[in-house]
Amino acid sequence: MTTAAAPVAQLDDQLTADFYLYESLLPDEERKILLKARTFMREEVKPLVNDAWSKAELPQELIEKFRGSGLVALAYEGYGEHQPAVSHLLSGTLAMELGRVDASCATFFGVHNGLGFYSIYYGGDKEQRDRFLPAMATMEKIGAFALTEPDGGSDVSGGMRTTARREGDTWVLNGAKKWIGNATFADYVVVFARDAADNKVKAFVVEKGTPGFEPVKIEGKIALRIVQNAEITLTDVRVPEANRLQNMKGFRDVAEVLRQTRSGVAWQALGVMIGAYELALDYAKERNAFGRPIAKFQLVQDLLVKGLGNITSSWGMLVQLARLQDQGIFRDEHSALAKEFVAARMREVVAWSREIFGGNGILLDYDIARFFSDAEALYSYEGTHQMQTLIVGKSITGHSAFVG
Q: Chain-centre distance of CA 363, in angstroms?
């Protein structure tokens, strides 16, 4: 039975950006989970992120903290710590909460708990789900998702060069992947390859240490520096038929994974927007210029109000998106519009927020520089702004504008 939404009087006052009280839509039990996550991110994760971001490292200590957080697989029936599975509204709000503190941590978690976990949950048969997912649910094993290639991003559906050739009960994979989060240390990497026999895209769980599987960390990033992205070379990588995800039968199934996880990226972008806005609001109240707090200046208030408007409109869109997911009437174009719109609004808000900091806005010590840089990656991954507009444009006009 679903409990009633929390009365407004019981709402947490720590989230100053919730101007329309969207959190009141969560039932009491789910709100307790959210507040636990908020405390975890603020007290356990936030103190570690600037140093990790500066060093471009994902410290084991941070992984261990997530391992004990109880946040993994909450949205998956039969596998998470909380059963039955939580609503899509809570699942999205949790992604928001992670992004509010750090986009890299939200991405690391999203790759494992979203792309990697959902690929096996959706694409695997019962034996495969039972074999791989329990250890992933406790983060004893870490997952990754290898779709993008060095010469193909959004066009990978038609131009995938990584191949799979069957030899009896074994598949031989050859090719390359790029920008694969968690891949330098992941235990299970879901690799997508085109079957040389029927030209269909299939998915394979490549386990850590498999000969011929060589992930190399991508250096020199200016965004999501904590995330360990890799370029992967696959040279005669032999994978048993038992590790081919049995329900992944073509790119349509890959698109289903992206449809689900893309909404999570939109929620992460909302979190980044909120985190940047809150930093700017606090700074404006504390920073003095010309003998008074800069929060008293009209132009500063204008930037803050525009930021709050972006947050409020984006949040409302995502609340309705979660309802569509819960009702089972959630389509590709719904996910695409949310990612396109919220990511664009995020980019505006982090820029306005950094502007309020003036020169201090380029210093890592003030956090806002990290938000500003990381926003660029969220704006691009899981489908660029332009690709999302093509998906939505096809839906509303009935005409495809894709080239090729």
A: 25
**β-strand 288-289 against 229-240: which pairing, if any?**
unpaired
Domains of the chain listed by start with CATH number: 18-137 (1.10.540.10), 143-243 (2.40.110.10), 251-397 (1.20.140.10)
Joined tokens for residue 36: 């636990």
Strand (E) or helix (H) holding 338: helix 332-356
Q: Are 104 and 112 in contact (CB under 8 A)?
A: no
Which band of pLDDT confidence, cut at 50, 70 and 90, is reported for residue 1?
A: very low
pLDDT of residue 300: 97
The pair of structure tokens assigned to 325 is 């997911």
Please provide residue 143's backbone torsions phi and psi, each rounded to the nearest 5 degrees. -110, 160
DSSP3 helix / strand / coil % (the chain, rounded to 5): 55, 15, 30
pLDDT (tens digit, 9 = 90+) per residue, 147-159? Answer: 999 986 656 666 7
Residue keyed to tokens 């089972």: 328
- Tell how strand 188-195 and strand 170-181 pair up: unpaired
pLDDT digits (tens, 9 = 90+) for 74-89: 989 888 666 678 999 9
Strand boundaries in 305-392, DSSP class E: none
